[in-house]
Write a structure and sequence with these properties.
elongated, single chain, eight-stranded mixed beta sheet, GMP Synthetase, Chain A, domain 3, about 25% strand
Amino acid sequence: MLKKLRFESSNAVMLSGVLHTPDAGTPKACALFAHCFTCTKNTRAAFNIAEALCAEGISVLRFDFTGLGESEGDFADTHFSSNVQDLVDAANFLKEIHHAPEVLVGHSLGGTAILAAAQQIPSAVAVATIGSPADATHVLHLLEEDMETIEQRGEACVSLAGRPFHIRKDFVDDVRSQSVREGIRSLRKALLVMHSPIDKLVPVEEAARIYRSAMHPKSFISLDNADHLLSNVRDSRYAGHVLAAWASRFIQNPDDELEPAPYRSGQVVVTGKTEDIFQVAINADGHPSRGDEPEVYGGTNLGPSPYDLLSAALGSCTVMTLNMYARRKKMKLDSVRVDVKHGKIHVEDCAQCESKSGKVDRFERTIYLAGELTAEQRERLLVIADRCPVHRTLHGEVEIVSKLAD
């Protein structure tokens, strides 16, 4: 899910952002993304990395720095320090409206800004740079042709990536005053350095400088054959998925907070603490999982509900039964998909129900058959679906015996 947001910076400027959240479930962590110098939050790399992280259960805020994209303010009035402050403001905003960021990600000079801002964002436990220079002064090589004008006149109109930008001497002086690399050693957060060995804008030697300056835990990932802007979709998506896998080692996973249910041979064991509301740990004959209820019912949506599990049992049994029957009858059935929807209906809406009043449970089962099947075979498989053991159990007479353990 994407949600456009606007928030006010500490400099009283309205900044524009987009929050990516997983389509289902509670995010297991939150990330803050910083775009490259003079770029915007809408670069292909920013979007793809955010989507890749979101697919792994990590929500992401990407936003435009002051004076760029849809954010207010004049770019000419900004500098490296103001970008760092924008990041701190964005992290504080996330804490207020969503979740304090545990993961900080920056691309190019955005990564350098992330390194500088990290110590001011206490919630962050993992920091990642992508194609970033070790010090902010590296950006000055982009201004070499106009540096004399900037020094003499106090500002110049500079062409960067084919677009004009007003750069003032304040920006140059601010960049020169930074000592980002010196602060990396005291970062006290996990660090991931990602860089392409063929990056022509920021040489890979900059990644080595960042890596050497950092204390453990630190990691390096080579983005082989990628350009500086990660223009290839596969490169940016790869970076995002690797980021998520790496960050999972350091973020607190809600799954780790729930004490696992013990293993009992041939049994399903379910445990849960009163303080965890609806969360339960499940061990089905050695296969661990978890259960929960949706947020609308007071749960945290970290696992399927009891009726979802029951629907899954019916759907699983149906698929297994049809595939087994098709193999035995040598039918050209390639695959089976079963969609199950559970609900309750009034008795008067159920022609086959024996009950006279109240409501009854209804499982709507839609079966998709893929393969070279005749119409007769398809109808036969529909009949067989009703013979799956779980289907028969739900329709049959069931006895449930409950007792208290000693």
